[in-house]
Amino acid sequence: MEALDLRARVAALTPETRAFIGGTFCDSASGRRFATLNPATGQKLADVVECDAADVDRAVAAARKAFAAGTWSRMAPKDRKRVLLRLADLVEAHAEDLALLESLDNGKPYLDALNADLPDAIETIRWHAETIDKIWGQVSPTPPGVVSMVVREPVGVVGAVIPWNFPLAITAMKLAPALAAGNSLILKPAEQTPLTALALAALAVEAGLPDGVLSVLPGFGETAGQAMGRHMGIDCLSFTGSTEVGRYFLKYSAESNLKKVTLELGGKSPVIVMDGLRNLQPAADQIAMGILFSQGENCSAGSRLIVHRAIKDRLLEVVQETFRTWTVGDPLDPATKIGALIEERHLQRILGFIESGKAQGARLIMGGERLQTASGGAFLGPTIFDGVTNDMQIAREEIFGPVLSVITVDSEEEAIAVANDSDYGLAASVHTDDLHVAHRMAGAIRAGTVSVNCFSEGDNSVPFGGFKMSGFGGREKGLFGHEQYTEPKTIWIQIEA
Ligand code: NAP
Ligand code: MG
How far apart are CA 4 and CA 11, in angstroms? Predict the structure, then answer.
């Protein structure tokens, strides 16, 4: 596969750019559109329909109508399963085009979209589809003369507002459990990456999802996102994005109908490497994966390397050598491992963090400068700061780019203390050959996922979400992921004894 072949396929793509409301693709009430760009070139990809509060009203009306009619909410579980499995098959059949669209809209390498984002989205839809006819309620231990059942019901109309870093995968992460439970869903993709969610809506029609059950509203956070957060007809709002915007959704809920809110937010995840690790290369490979995959634009990115002094210099040599193999370039080039950052403004923000690292006394030992300037895109290579202390801005704030901050420690206790000294608690990794150290650390670290001798968020069978300011209100993935989209109901029946 060559970049040239892909260019021919790019030319043949005709992305859907209209909003999807009540089962049809349409313009917004205002008639306005906004541009979505290709981050690798800075050029416009398409003008997309811009939804705002009036369109949210329309989508909520359609969603409520469908929910009340029961066309989806009361469909037999095995039939609902069939529709979602068909959707997964359709996504698989269109995987190459969807991956291309994702790469063009987001700037990530095409091969990452094809080999990571797409399989992830497909598996997520299948996994939750398979649960639909396998989740039982409970019969509780009542006194004689009473029968009591506890059942799980869909909450009703779910709103989902999502970020730009894994547009299709995060869409699937919310859509699959929300629809599996029988809800209607209204999704607002990020303004930078609206195209794959719209493509998915077209496939949902083909799969047989009834009208009104799914709406996709491209638009801006301050308008469409806020209108969803404040809507009296939305029962649950599932948000993934920054901690700052997450706070807004709690406020919107408090000031409207007290809708359930689930927040999956930012992170500043520690990666701990302890003294005595025999083989440094596997650790370096995982450290690279943790901070460089997806340009470092990953909520659980391993951005703080906390390393024992005795091993630090040797480890950093291997890490730098490994980082050099992560080629920065055109996302359509199969050799590229780091594509373009989402937009110029984001690159400038990251360069600001790099300046602050230098100003606060950290030592820049790799990268730190924009690359590929002639492309018109926003490119930054692997960047490493040594000599970081945990009070520096680059150790405390989420940079959301390929920037690793190295903090040296002298003991296991200090490593744990530094790891936990953060507002965030999304993920963490520990590299050690000592099972006892692994267990002690996994227990002591305050984070939603602790991976040992790897960088991983686990798979669909395990929950994903954050402690502290990384999350609120529940977990995604696994059966935990269903809880935010269902209400437990007690049915208490007096019977003749
Ligand atoms: P963001 O700025 O918080 O935006 C996320 C979504 O919220 C977008 O759709 C955005 O719309 C919308 N939004 C913005 N302002 C809003 C407002 N005032 N009211 C309602 N909605 C609003 O985050 P981002 O920059 O797209 O993504 C990066 C962040 O997401 C990082 O902090 C990252 O850690 C986090 N993230 C977390 C997870 C996780 O699972 N924990 C996963 C991925 C990313 P616009 O598109 O118009 O801005
Ligand atoms: Mg874009």
Answer: 11
